Amino acid sequence: MRPGGEPVTLGGMSSVAVRRVDGEFRRRLTAAFSWQTDRGVSSSYADVTGWWRDPDLIRELGPALVGLYAEAPTVVLGPVSRGALVGALTAASLGVGFVEVRKDDGQAIDSDRWVKRTTGPDYQDRHLVFGFRRELIKAGDRVLMVDDWADTGATARVVRELVDACGAHWIGAACIVDALTDTRLRHELPLRALLDVRAL
Fold first, then answer.
1. pLDDT digit string (tens) for 136-174?
2. Which of 87, 90, 159 minimizes the C-alpha distance to 122?
3. CB 141 within 8 A of CB 160
4. Do 172 and 192 contact (CB within 8 A), yes or no?
5. C-beta atoms surrounding 8 within 10 Å
6. Are 73 and 171 within 8 A, CB to CB?
7. Domains of the chain in sequence order
8. What distances in angstroms separate CA 124 from CA 92, 120, 148, one per listed residue?
9. Contact between 122 and 155 (Cβ < 8 Å)
10. Quick check: helix, strand or coil at residue 42?
11. CB 3.0–4.6 Å: which of 37, 40, 139, 175 could bond 193 by disulfide?
């Protein structure tokens, strides 16, 4: 079954089909995920590689993520590295363009204009510089950011600042997993997700 069954179409040029992500799709996402750890080590890491191995999941991820918002983007942004993968899948499902938000990268020549911002501390307490070429986002664009995981919200916050600096319209952030430590960000950004980390 497609992740949402029959879509409900909202009126207007800038709307998309809002899909309800069904329980079966969420169950399959959860089943393809695992926590990995070594014996005698208390910490573990999230292994999402099972998502990419399942051709049905990767085909359905884009429509499911964009379906979290009613407003249709004209462009999708995805931060490197896995956000770029998920973002490209989402953009392809919509038939719109994609912009990779680069990390610690920038202009190669003086005439290559970039917009860049530094994040607050991420989940590893790092401050990272994200950016993209200025010409890739236009003032009239409606922008959706897509990523695989949201933890501190630092990446989504800085990407929103980049979009605002371009004079474009920020729709929100769509993630596969919501592990936000600051729950206010769900409303402030806004940020919506397919899974809550507690389900994993």
1. 999 999 999 999 999 989 889 999 999 999 999 999 999
2. 159
3. no
4. yes
5. 12
6. yes
7. 8-199 (3.40.50.2020)
8. 31, 11, 16
9. yes
10. coil
11. 175
pLDDT in tens, 21-65: 668 889 999 999 999 887 777 777 888 889 999 999 999 999 999
Phi and psi (nearest 5°) for 142? -110, 120
Going by the DSSP 8-state scheme, the letter that residue 198 receives in this structure is G
Closest CA to 129 of 157, 92, 156, 158: 158
Tokens of 187: 């409303």
In whole angstroms, give the CA distance from residue 5 to residue 3: 6
174 burial via Cβ count (<10 Å: 0-12, 13-18, 19+): buried
CA distance 101 to 68: 21
Peptide bond into 81 cis (omega under 30): yes
Q: Residue 112: pLDDT band by 50, 70, 90 thresholds?
A: low
